[in-house]
Amino acid sequence: MKKRTLLLASALFFISMLSAQQHKIVYDLSSADTSDHSTVLRQFNNILKDAPTAELEVVCHGQAIYMFVKDKAILEEKMKELVKRGKISFKVCANSMRRYGVDKSQLIPLAEIVPVAMLELSSKQQQGWSYIKTGR
User: How far from the centroid of its chain's Cα atoms is residue 96's Cα?
Assistant: First the structure.
């Protein structure tokens, strides 16, 4: 009887662990197209509806960095709303900033600078995050 109880308890524990899976998703965005930026934010919103504990990150490089430049950041309010709802981070590539002549003082406060976008993406994948390439 004790063995059955222990077996049942173990099975229930493992089932609960599987159902409590923590989603961690990193998006790779290099497009300057604001419709691509909107799509990422819409996807974040949809994910948070069904998985409110998901960890989401977008890594912007190339011309996607303009998503975070103060005078061009047309989606800043939507980004702020998402951050209030979940564990979301917005990363901007320092190499791309140098390439396009963007200084950190030009970025909105939500932007976190990473030295190399590809290393950030690789690091997340090595930590078990799901990878999604978005935009063009």
Answer: 18
Spatial neighbors of 62 by CB under 8 A, at least 6 apart, are 30, 31, 32, 93, 96
Domain region containing 57 = 22-134
The model carries a pTM of 0.83
Query: What angle is formed at CA 71 by the lines to CA 32 and CA 77, rounded to 5 degrees?
Result: 85
10-residue averages of pLDDT along the chain (136 residues) = 56 48 93 95 95 96 96 93 94 98 96 98 97 87
What's the burial of 14, exposed, middle or buried (CB within 10 Å: 0-12/13-18/19+)? Answer: exposed
How many independent structural domains does the chain possess?
A: 1
**Does residue 14 form part of some domain?**
no
Residue 63 domain flag: yes
- Start-to-end C-alpha separation, the chain: 60
130 occurs within a structural domain: yes
Phi and psi at residue 62, to the nearest 5°: 60, -145
Instruction: Give domain status of residue 79, yes or no.
Output: yes
